Structure formats: C-alpha cells, structure tokens
Amino acid sequence: MCYPAGEFRVGGQDVKLGDLKVADIQEPIGFWMSASQFEYWKHTHLTVDVVDGRGGGFSLESPEGKRFLIRSRLFTDQEWSILEKNPVTTGA
Fold it and tell me: Is 1 part of any domain?
C-alpha cells in the first residue's frame, strides 16, 4: 500500500529497505516492511515498479489506474556478503 506523507506510522520493528525516487516528487519515499516479512525476504533483491492496472483498496495510486509490482531475485553471494556487514534500519 502507498500512503500520503504522514499517514503511515512506522513501528519499532519495521525495517527500512530503502528510498524510492519518484518523478515529480522532490523528497524520496521510504520503503518499509515488517520485521517478519523482512526475515522471509532478506536474501532477496526487490525492485518496485509501477504498471498500468488496478491498485489495491485504499492505496494512493488506485485512482490513477496504476499499481505497484514487486519483482524479486536472490542476492548474489557478493551482494549478500556486503549486506551481512551492515545493520538494517528499524523504525521509531
């Protein structure tokens, strides 16, 4: 789901995966997931894409005729060795 700025509360166990840079929006948008989801996906490179289609429920992109699509692949051994050395950023 995509929420307007300030309408999504990050919890202490949420993990920040990175920032999305969106055309026409000056500030990057934080991309977060729960700690339990992160445990499952931590070995995976995730790419967030925007495609034509219906978005989910009350997600911000729904009225625009767009939806988010997440593509994934496993990290290479080299990528994983770098990531293992760096702690993840967690929420408030």
Answer: no
Q: Residue-wise pLDDT tens for the chain (92 aa)? A: 677 677 788 899 999 998 888 788 788 888 899 999 999 999 999 998 888 887 666 666 666 777 888 999 999 999 999 999 998 889 86
Residue 41 inside a domain? The answer is yes
- Asked if residue 8 belongs to a domain, the reply is no
Q: Where are the beta strands (DSSP E) in 8-77?
A: 15-20, 29-33, 44-52, 66-74
Tell whether 52 is covered by a domain. Answer: yes
- How many domains, in total, are found in the chain? 1
Which residues span the domain enclosing 66?
A: 14-85
pTM of the model: 0.76
